[in-house]
Amino acid sequence: MDKIHNIRVFSRVVEVGSFTAVANVLNSSIAHVSRSISTLEEELRVRLFDRTTRRVTPTEAGARYYRRCQKILADLDYADAEAADALIEPYGTLRVHAMPGLGQTHLAACIIEYQRRYSDVNIELTLSAAMPRLVEEQFDVSVLTARTLPDSDYVSQTTGTSYSVLVAAPSYLEQRPPLDSPDDLTRHECIRLQSPASPPTDGWTLENSDGEVLSNASTARFKVNDPEALRVALLAGAGIGALAVYSAIDDLRSGALVRVLPKFQLPTRNVYSVYPSRLYVDAKIRTFVDFLKHELSARMAAEEAALKNLNNGKLPFRAQ
C-alpha cells in the first residue's frame, strides 16, 4: 500500500475517532481502513491507537506521529495545489453548509453572484440548523448565525451581524389584548424557534434602543426547528414569534406581518464563515469567504436600514 495514502487514512481516524466513519468519508471499507493502520503500525513497530468497541483514540506515540504527519501532508497538499493553481485560481467544487433561514433568504442569491464572478467553481449548498463537523462531513465552509462560537480548531471570520424581532399577523393581533410592554406577552400565544443556536428555554431576552435588557417568561405552546415553518405559522395567525430581520422584512413590507413591541429587539448575533484550517487555504474557499464579507453583510445592512424606515412611519405598525 502507498505510505502517503496510509498516513492520510491514519490522520482521518485521529480526527474522526472511528474506522467506520472514515470508511464512509473515503467511500471505502472498514477492512481497508483497518489494513492501512495495521500496515503503518507494522512498519513503525509501534501501536498507534487504543481500540475499544465505541471509539479509537491515538496512543502517545500515535499523537506525536499525527502532529508530524500533519505538517508533511499540508506541505504535500500545498505542492499539489500550487502545481494545479488551486491556491491562485478558484475552481472545482465548493461544499457549503448554512443555517436554513440565512441560506434561503440570502446565501443562495450570494452564491449565484459569486458564480457569475468565478465561473469555474461549482457549489453544493446544504441547509441544516446544526453546526456540522466540517472535516468529517467534508464541508469546505459553514455559514451560521450565533452569539459566539464554541472552542474548536476551525478558523472563523465574522461576515456580518443580524438580530431578530417579534412579529405577528394582523389577523391574530386584532382579536388579542394590546401589547404595551414585554410583560404583556404572557397573555398571548407565543411560538418559538428551537434550534442549536437558540437556548432551549421559554421566553425571550429583549433589548431596547438604550441597551436595556429585559426578559420575559412567556410560555410557548408551539415550538418548531425551522424558520420557514415558523414564518408560515405566524402568517396563519398562530401567534407571536421572533424572526430574523432577513426572514421577516418582505412580510413586514407587505403588511402580511406586523412588528410587535417595535422598540425592542432580540440580542444581536454574529454571522460567521467557518472553515477547517488557515494553512494553504484553497482559492475557492478564500474568495468565497471574502465575497460573503462584502455581499452578505451589505444585503443584511440594507434590510436593517429598511426595517428602521418602516419603524419611522413609512408603514403603520400595530401593537405598539
From TrEMBL:
Gene3D superfamilies: 3.40.190.290, Winged helix-like DNA-binding domain superfamily/Winged helix DNA-binding domain (1.10.10.10). Keywords: DNA-binding, Transcription, Transcription regulation. InterPro entries: LysR-type_TF_proteobact-type, LysR_HTH_N, LysR_subst-bd, WH-like_DNA-bd_sf, WH_DNA-bd_sf. It comes from the Bacteria. It holds the Pfam family LysR_substrate. Residues 1-59 form the HTH lysR-type domain. The keyword Transcription applies. The keyword rRNA processing does not apply. SUPFAM superfamilies: Periplasmic binding protein-like II (SSF53850), Winged helix' DNA-binding domain (SSF46785). Belongs to the LysR transcriptional regulatory family. This is LysR family transcriptional regulator. It comes from Paraburkholderia bengalensis.
